[in-house]
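Table S4 entry, Glycerol-3-phosphate acyltransferase.
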Amino acid sequence: MIEYAYAAVLAYLCGSIPFGLILTRLAGLGDIRSIGSGNIGATNVLRTGNRPLAAATLVLDALKALVPVLVARALWGEEAARIAAIFAFLGHCFPVWLGFKGGKGVAVMIGSLLALSWPVALIFCAVWLLIAFTRKMSSLAALTAAATAPIFAFVINDEWLAGTVAVMAIILFFQHRTNIQRLLAGTEPRIGEKKSA
C-alpha cells in the first residue's frame, strides 16, 4: 500500500502546480484569479487575450497529470497509475498552496486520460471540440466530454478505468457547479468573452 501513497503524493504535488497563475504573472498580466472566473486554468487565461499563454497553460496542465501517471505506472503498476490520475486531478482542483481553490480540471483530465488510455483521451478531446465549436461554450463542452468519458473508458478498456474516469468526471461537475447554474439560466458566457465564466 505504501507505493499507492507515494503515487498519490507525487501526483497531488505535480497537479497542484498553478501554471496558469505562474505564466500570467511572468507575462506581466497580474493575478489571473482577479479576472474572469478567477480560475487558474487555460480558459480563464484565454480571457486575458493572450492565446499563446492560454495554449501553454493547457499543455502544461495536461503534462502535470500525464507525467506523474506515467511515473506511477512505471514504478508501481497500473493501479498506482489510476490513483495518480485521481490525485493529480485533485491537486489541480484543490491545490494546498492556493487555499484549495484551483482550476476546473479539463486539461488535467486530458493529461490523465492520455497516460491511462490514449483512445479515450482522443474521444474526450473530439467531444470537447465538437461542442466547443458548435456551441461556443467551454463549460458545456467540458461537461459533455466528461459525462461521456466513463462510457468510452468502459467500452474501450474496463470497469476499473471507467470508475477512475467517473471519479474525475464527478469532481469536474462539482467544479463546474456555477457554470451549470448559468447554463440552465441561459447566462453562460461564450468562449473568448472577457467576463465571468
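The chain has ten helices and no strands.
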